[in-house]
Structures are given as C-alpha cells and as structure tokens.
Amino acid sequence: MLHRRRAPLLAGLAAMSTALVLTMTGPAGAQTGSPPPAAASAAMPSAADPFAVSGVRVDISGSNPTTVRDQAIREAQAKAWAELYRRLVPGGTPPRLSDNEIARMVQGFEIDEEKVSASRYLGTITVRFRPNAVRDALGHSGGATQYVEPPSRPFVILPVTQTEGRTILWQDRTPWREAWEARQPAAALVPLVVPDGELTDAQAISGEDAIAGNAEALNRIAQAYKAGGVVVARTDLPAGGPDPARGMTVDVTRYGLDGTRDNQVVQVKGGGSADDVLTRAVAAVGTQLDESWRREHTMAAGPEHNTLVRIPLSAVNDWVETRKRLSSVNAVTRTNLLSISRNEALITLTHRGDPEQLAQALARQDLGLARTASAAPSAYPGAPLPVPSADWQLTLLPRGSGAASAGAIPSSTSPAASPFQASPMSLAPSSLAPSAPLDSGGTLGAPPRNLGTLPAKSLP
After folding, report:
1. What keywords were assigned to this record (predicted)?
2. Do 324 and 206 belong to one domain?
C-alpha cells in the first residue's frame, strides 16, 4: 500500500466528507464507531492500518434496501477476511468461517462509496479487524501455524536519484520520484508513504543524509510522518530518465526506529518505454520490501503462552538494554517484571508459540534464550514470598551474533506455561533500578522487590 499525506485543508475536507457519508448511511454508518481526529487521519491514513482492508467492492441485488445493505456488509467482511488472510499467511488458503465468526474479529468498517436503489446496492467498503482476535483466529479456525506480523506503522519512502554527480531528493522533480507518487495503492504487507516534499521535509533530511543513513535525520523524517521507519530507494539515472533497453538498478535500504537496517539490491529488466521501466522498478521495490519483512517477522500463530525467565545482570545497563531489545520482538506481547536484584531479574514473557519458537525471534534481536537446570526456589532474608524457579534464562548477546546462535537451544519438551503473574501496577521506565547498587563486593544486596508490570511496547 502506498499512501501520501494530504495537506491540512484536503484532510479537513476529507474528514467532512466522511462524516457526511456516515451520517447518510444510517444504520450501516452507525456501526463504524468514532472516527479518528482529522489531524490523525492526515498523518496516518486509515488504509495504512495493516489489519485494515480497503477498497472492498460489493454488488448485491434484492427487494429490501435495508436487507441488501446488511448483506453487502457481511459479504464485504468475508472478502476482507480472505484478503487479510492471504496478506498474513502467504500461500495459504483462507478458511471458510461463518458470518458470526468473522464479525467477532471486525473492529469496524467504513463505507467509502455507495449507490443504493430499490433493488440493488453498489458500494466500496473498508473493513478494520481486531489485531489480537485475528492472531488468535489464525491458529484456531484459521488453521495456520505461522503468520507474518505486519509493521504497526507505515514506512516513509525516500526516492533518491543520483544524476551526473548530483544527489537529488527534494531539489527537482525527478522521474523516479514521479513514479512513486503515481503508484496506485496495492494490497502490500509494508505500507509506504511518500513525503510531500515541503520545506519541513527538506529541513528534516537531505539526500546526502539519506544515502549516508544519518540516524538523527532519519528519525526526524520518520517522526514527521508518524512512521515506523524509513526506506531509502537510491538509483543512478540520466537526466532524461532510464534507458528502456538497459533497465534499472535500485539500492534499497530499510531503516527501523530501533536501529535495525536491511539492505537489498533490486534489478529491473529493460523493455517497453522509460515509464514502463520506472513502474516495474517501483513494483519490484515494494515486492522486495514485503519479502524481506516476511523473512524477519514470521512467527507462530495461536494462543498466548507465559514463560518464566531469569535474566543475569552484571551492570545496570544490562537490564536497560535487555528491556530495549525485548520491545522490538513482535512475538512478545507482554512482559511482567516479577523481581529484580543487583545480579538478576525475574520476568514473565507472554508470547505466541512455544519457547523454542520464541528463541528464534529473540535471537534476531541478539537475545539468547536457553533452558537451565531446575533449581529450588531461591531464599532471600526478609523476602515475604519465595522467588519462583525459572527453567529458562535470557542473556544479552553481542550485537550481530543472534542469527548464529538462533539454533543453540537444546531440543527438549517445552515447559508448561507459568501461572505466576505479577501484581498489576504501573511502572515508569525511568523508575526501574536494581534493589541495591552494583558493586564488586560479595554481598547480595537488598532482597528482590515486586516492582509490578514492566511497560510493554504499544500494541495495536
């Protein structure tokens, strides 16, 4: 999907039009819920929601206009579920679900366009699904063992052209940029937004910063569009555009806000006109981004599990860094901090899939999960409750070494999910600290305290 942020005036008009349509649609419009503020819609188009399916066309005939509309909505929801399933489970066949089963997953819908007569209903509808309900359904009625977790926010695409020694991003309207602006919305896994190219964009990042991967500049342009990262698509082109006989080569680098980076080179064959080559290049870059995302974010479907994990600590920064990396693991839906001392922390990870599958996802963030020998609960003087024993240990790995250690877990039966839960208490990230200062002495320091619930990453 490709989305462009509209100017505030256009966004206001769009919001007014949407409100008018919803008012006129009667009972169907009433089910959509409260629409987002106009400002939010401008910064994040509704279709950028990876669990939303837009442009669902329905054509229903019948004798009762109200009944026909209801039937059209049910058909739109069924079509949207099939499209969403194919998006999240590549190569899978959407299962047959009843209207009620699908309706339980639907968060809301919007009627984008409709034409109603006494005997016919023509409409285009956007259907939004509840992310967690979809994740649960994929492993049950959906029949999928794995699915691709889509990005929670779109990525900003920066089409950079290098021509005759010049790096052009904002200065001139290049054929490469025009091709991206002309791209039609598609059912893509990674949603993309083309910047407006206004003065604020040029002040946020330059073409040289984009090519060099300047982290501060990339963060500025991502924050300006409320994006989850930036994609730099760089190509060398003559001033008049590509040579249709030679094709194109595009260097594509995807930057995540968490510091991740993925680089691919896309080759586009020649043939047809220069515009044809540019159009194929844009499509090829989108396909490559989707494939790359699938490789990195495929995870187990099905219900959530809880696993008790012990984290050894040798410095305060170990806990801070561990928490940071855990927030980037999509398979982890919640993290509860049970206790923390100067040399270790005890947490409960809520995740999808068994611990062995979780370990593969953790390894991609340079976190090692390994089974430990069972031990009796540790006793701490003055502790009101015994500290439970953990069968799994989570350790920080050197940056870049996670992929090599992804399969280092001994083959064994998965432990049962721990029923132990921490008390629900809000805890700000800045207030997390060991029970006692870390030092080189042999004392154990203060006993662990129950610090409540560790704030997890934002979930849709």
Report:
1. Signal
2. no
